[in-house]
Design brief:
two-stranded antiparallel sheet; DNA-binding; globular; Arc Repressor Mutant, subunit A; homodimer; about 55% helix; 2 strands; mainly alpha
DNA sequence: CAGATTGACTTGCTTTTTGCAACCAAGAAT
DNA sequence: ATTCTTGGTTGCAAAAAGCAAGTCAATCTG
């Protein structure tokens, strides 16, 4: 189970993307990483969707295999593990933001975090730049 | 099994969107509807990913329940059924295009339909407008 | 420095969803 | 009339999801 199933169903980029992201949980973990800056196992567990620990564990493993995140030991507390999003992960912000817009438009029970959306809509490039910058700082802070 | 499972995991629009779209097949059917203008059961079957007929049948049913498509009998051939995307469905073009960009950037085995991407990138609004317009014409052609 | 607690998982088991392959029925073509 | 096509359904095996409980090392607590 070390390598993820690398068989892609077709050469279509949508299908290739969905081979990695196409399930109910993966993109929620990515959302938590990018937009809510969650970094620890317990943080993801506490998201309102209440993912089961075995599934979370599996998704984190797969995301690492696909190079969407890096796993590190917390220098401040050796029993904690820090999950850091990579550039490949951060670049999922635009598709996720478009899903937010769609969800907000069509699913009545959805409740948008207005400030996040507004910041993205106003200037997507700056928004992305900010995320990348703070990520770089974080990386330096606990490099090892 | 008539009504789709309407329990949303949370009020987050990403999670709400994924409650509907979050699996390996649904967005591929939507892609076929929007970008390749597939309309018949057999068209979807023939996509390179080779969806199984029972799953296709199930996804078409669920998409209809969620008002992403309309099912009609073909006036020209009574045994054929036309699946027409709705506005709600067409509005998934932006998230899908962003997935295309991501897939094209990061998944080496993916092979983009350059013309589609270019047309979208050059002028997203016009691209969307065209799709909507041709959909309206199609609707009139086989209204009933 | 022993004992309780926390954080990050794993295991076992049940339920649900996928994925074949085969089958079927109504309408159209010959 | 019978053969083919289209759009499915059914049955069954395999994989994935979901839940509760257990593990195990690190670290706080007294």
């Amino acid at each position: 189970m070390t390598k993820s199933s690398q068989i892609s169903r077709s050469s279509c980029p949508v299908s290739c993307a969905l081979d990695i992201l196409g399930d109910k949980w993966t993109l929620l973990v990515v959302r938590d990483l990018i937009f809510f800056r969650k970094r620890y196992f317990g943080d993801f567990q506490n998201s309102p969707e209440k993912i089961a620990t075995n599934i979370l564990s599996d998704r984190l493993k797969k995301l690492e295999e696909c190079h969407l995140l890096l796993r590190r030991r917390d220098p401040a507390n050796a029993r904690k593990i820090i999950y850091m999003p990579t550039e490949k992960c951060v670049d999922l912000a635009p598709p996720i933001m478009e899903l937010v817009r769609w969800g907000a438009k069509y699913v009545p029970e959805s409740d948008v975090h207005e400030n996040l959306v507004q910041r993205f809509e106003q200037d997507p490039l700056e928004f992305m730049g900010e995320i990348r910058l703070s990520l770089r700082k974080e990386n330096e802070a606990n490099k090892e």
